[in-house]
Structures are given as C-alpha cells and as structure tokens.
Amino acid sequence: MLAYNKEKLENGLLVSEAKELYKMKFISKAQLAEIATQLPLLQSNGNLLVRIGFFLLGCFLFSSVMGSIMLLFAPLMDNNYKAMVYFYALIGLIGTELLAAKNYHKHGLDDAFILSMQGAFYGAVGLSLEDSLPVFIMMMVVGLVCCIRYVHTLSALISCIGLVGLLFDLITEQHLMDTMFLPFVGFLLAIGIYVVYRKLHSNPKYNLYGNALRVTKVFSLVLGYFSLNYMVVRELSQSLMGITVAEGGDIPLAFLFYGFTFLIPLFFIWYSVYTKDRMMLIVGILTLGYSFFTIRYYHQLLPLEIALLLGGLVLFSVVFAAIRVLKHKETGVTFQPDRSSDSNLLVNAQALILSTQADVKPMAPENKMPFGGGGFSGGGAGETF
C-alpha cells in the first residue's frame, strides 16, 4: 500500500530523532552528520519556506498542464467539462505516482500534486452528481487512502473534514435524526476520533504516521469544543432549526452549553498538565480565550476597559500562584530550562544578573611611599628619638 520504501521512511524518522538529540546536546554535530550520510533517505525539504516554494511551483506546473490539455482536447471532448475535470484528477494521480517513484516525500512538489489531484477529483464528483453527500464521502475515503499510501499529513485532515461533513449532511439534509441532537453527535464523534488516535498512537506500527495522528488529535479536540460551544450552537439553532431568540431570551438548554463552553477548555488544561501534553495545553488555552469571547459577544456585563483590567488582575494572580507552586519543582511542569531549547541566552542573562547583584567592595590602593613617622621625604617625626 505504501508508495515509498518503508526503510527509507523509517530512516527519515531516525534522522529527525537525531536532530532532536543534537538540539538537546546529547550528540555532537559530527555524529549527526555521520548518521545523516550513512542512512539512505528520501528527497525531502526540512526548510518550511523552501517546501512552500516548491509547493507553489508544483501548483503552477499542474495548472499549466491543465491549461495545455484544455487547449488541445477541449474540442475533441465537445466541451464536456465534467469529463475533463476527471481527466485532470487522473493527471494529478499520475504525477503523484511519478514523484513517489522518484522518492519525493515532504518536498513540496509531491504536496502540490497530491492536493491538486484530490481537489480536481472532489470537484469532478460534485459537478457530475450535483450533491454534497458524495463529495464528503469521497473526501473521507480518498483522503484516508492518500494519507496511508503517501504518508501525507494534510490528507488526514481532509479525511476528518469529510467525515464531519458527511455526518452534518446526513442530519441536516437527509434528516437522519432531529437537528437538535447535532451538537451531541458531534461531541461523541470527537470522542471517537480521539479514542482511535490513542489506539493508533500507542501502536509502534504506526510511527510513520505520527504527524497525521497529531493533526487528527488536534482536530478531535477542536471538534469536541466547538460542538458544544454556546456561540456555535446558538447560531446553528437559528440557521438550521429556525429558532428565533428574542431579546432577553435564550436557546433551549442554554445553561448546559454555557457550562460546556468553559468546562471543556478547563478540562483540556487540567488533563494536559496532568499528562504533560503541550499540544492539548495550547488548545485548552486558546479555546478558553474563545470562551470568554463567546460570552462577551452576547452579554456585555462590564465595560471593555473594566473587563480587561479584571482579566489582567486574574491572570497576574494565577501566574503568581503558579510561580510560587512550581518554583522549586524539578520534575513534571517546572521552571527548569528545557534541554531541547538553546539556553545560551539564559546562561548569559543569569551571568549578567549575578554580576550586577554581587556585592563587590573597592580595594584600597597600596601606598608604596608612606608619609609621616619620620620616613622618606620628611613627612614628620616618629615616636623614637
């Protein structure tokens, strides 16, 4: 099923781990270079900007091919644009397979052809069937296949979006169940995706798909939060169920969604600290900020300047308490420097602070020509005759 040599993919993971060890000062630069030169690798770009540049170049190449084909074969196809879009998808598939055969992986060119191929195929399905449900099904299936075959991270995200779109379409358009259950079904779907992530992440067989699994994890966390977010539920209730919220009124079960709007981010933050999960901690902090925005969007309890002042005071109190609790801890969440970061600036800053705080007394200069006592230069008479 894999389009690449599995040994070379695993070698790429080993080199990535070696780079992390080099950053943490466990191995030297010579050892890192030796590891990178001895292992056969795929052609990839570690520089994100260079990869984006090759991605844009690949998109330009794909569009050029499509324009040439349209000029040559449009009269032969009697301007059948639906068939031509399928043909574009076929060209993208051929280009993707050729790049995979040339060992291009995470290079930029392969990303352009994989995504262009999928976009052309989804567009062709939508034009030919004129329905969103088959498009979501194809996104879920083709995205998953591309993720597995080409070890492509964004394809995992496309597959997750297709799954959520399929569920949304079945409930809202196909009337599989009442629309009022949509938030809870979305939340249960997020839990299911997260459980699948945990099972696959704990299995060493799927180490090649580490980035795709991390994207799936973040997607499940974000989906779980926004499924029960008060703003999302209220706006969907007004647009899908035709509920009109009068002034001073609210949506059904509003208290429940108010609670989940804050409880889910707080749970993310607590669980991330408990399990030392940095990614979940970031998601929890961002969603908690959006929760405050959600409530303030509908309820102006305080003027903006007063709310900012109180928020600053609360934030200062929380940070001060965290400093007092974590100041002397050496394990878990601590103030100790991370070995994976460059601590030269921290060391220099510590040396500067110590030099400024040290109590240095000036030394009295030694006088080699004392005066008085009847010595040289007649500075005065001593106590002896």
Automatic annotation (TrEMBL):
The keyword Transcription regulation does not apply. It comes from the Bacteria. The keyword Aminoacyl-tRNA synthetase does not apply. Keywords: Membrane, Transmembrane, Transmembrane helix. The chain crosses the membrane at residues 48-77, 83-100, 135-168, 180-197, 217-233, 253-273, 279-299, 306-326. This is DUF4401 domain-containing protein. It comes from Flavobacterium saliperosum S13.
